[in-house]
Amino acid sequence: MMNVADLPEILPVFPLPGALLLPRGRLPLHIFEPRYLAMIEDCMKTRSRLIGMIQPREVPGTGEKRLNAIGCAGRLTGFSETEDGRYMITLSGISRFRIKEEVTGFSPYRRCSVEWTGFQRDLGPVEEDPEFARESFLVLLGRYFQTMNLSTDWSSLKEAETELLINSLSMLCPFSPEDKQALLEAPSLTTRRETLVTLMEFALRGGSGEEVMQ
């Protein structure tokens, strides 16, 4: 377990649309761009081994891409190198952060000054969702998976802890980058589950306000 004192003020960031990391979640990544290979090598030299996953967003009418204000830092916990020099890594989610400003310098990858205030719960124990109705949730999830032609190990889902279930689905389901950002910014596990349900129901309506044909 890390605490606030272990968290750095400057964080290397990896802008990757649609890639969501949540606290206590695990995100596998395939690294092949030279700047991000350098980022991984530099990260492994630090004590915290933290990388900030962040969603880029387009500024309407300009085509310019900026970083969202909130991301999630992951600790590099898995690493392997392929014969052609690519890296296969795993990031374990530690805590969300808020960007204060981007740091300029000679680094080939982007770095940001960040603050961790407001996300202390991320460093705590597994979060609970007292209002979670697993049976009805799994029924909805089954309809969503069928509609989206997705498959899963249902026995594992039925036995998974509530936080692991909700966060894993939030990370893995094929939602838009904007929807993934909403899931990231959810202030509690209950709010994230409610957002997840809304997104699945919206997909079942074909992305419209029309009712689903039963």
TrEMBL record:
GO molecular function, one term: peptidase activity
GO terms under biological process: proteolysis
Keyword terms, alphabetized: Hydrolase, Protease
Xref: InterPro entries: Lon_prtase_N (IPR003111), Lon_prtase_N_sf (IPR046336), PUA-like_sf (IPR015947)
Keyword NADP attributed: no
Lon N-terminal domain: residues covered: 11-204
Keyword match Protease: yes
Domain of life: Bacteria
Protein name: ATP-dependent protease
